[in-house]
Amino acid sequence: QAFFCLLLCVPWGSSCPPSCQCTERAGAKAVLCSSRHLEEIPEDIPRDVVFLKLDANSITRIPGNAFRHLSHLEEIDLSRNAIEKIDGAAFRGVAAGLRSLDLSGNRIRSIPKEALLALKAKLRLANNPWHCECALQEVLWEARLDLDSVQDITCHTAPREEYVGKPLLQVLDAGVNLCGVRQRTTDVAMLVTMFAWFAMVVVYVVCYVRHNREDSCRHGHYLRALPSAPAHAE
C-alpha cells in the first residue's frame, strides 16, 4: 500500500481510463481505480501497466481474457468487490508474469480450478462465501496462497453440516478429503440409478408374466366354455 501511495505522486502522460489515476515510479506504471464505483473491468487500461488496483468497487465478474493484453502486469488487486463469477480463462495471458492476485472480500462461492492453478502468483482468497468442494481443496493444495490469509478461507456451505463455518484448512487437517466425498456421492448416485433401473426391469417382467398368465387363464376359460363337438358316426 505504501508503494501505491508513492506512485500517486508521479503521474504519467499516456492514455488512462477516465475513472482511474495513472502513475509511474522508477519505470513501473500503475493504474489506480480504487473506490470508483466500477461495475466491470475497464477496457482501456494501458498495455504497459505493471500494477493494477481495482479494489473497493462493484465488479461482479471476471470474464475470459480480461487481462490478456496486459503482458507486463505483475499485481492485481480485486479485493472488496462483488465478484461472484470468474471465467476459467480469466487470467489467460498474464499467468506467467503475475506475482500477486488479491480476490479477498468478494462473493465467490466457487471458482474453476483452471483459472487459478495456472497462476504462479501469490493468491489471497479470504473472506468469500466459499462452498467447500473438491476444486477448492485442489486450489488450496496446489496454488501459491498467501499464508497470512489461509485461515480466513472459511466454509460458508459444505457437503456436510459440521464443516460449515470452519476454516477449510482446519477441515482438511482433520483428515477430510472433499474430493473423496464427491467421489462417494457420485458412487452412491450411480448405485441408486442402477437400482432404480433394475427395479423397473423387475416390475416390467412381473407385469409381463402376470399379464400373459391372465391372458392364458381367460383363453382356458373360453375354451372350456365352448360346446363339445358331436361325435362322428362310425
UniProtKB/TrEMBL annotation:
Signal sequence residues: 1-22
Cellular compartment(s): Membrane
Major location category of this protein: membrane
A Gene Ontology term for the protein's cellular component: plasma membrane
Keywords for the protein's UniProt record, in alphabetical order: Leucine-rich repeat, Membrane, Repeat, Signal, Transmembrane, Transmembrane helix
Pfam families named in the record: LRR_8, LRRNT
Domain LRRNT: 15-51
Name of the protein in its database record: Leucine-rich repeat-containing protein 3
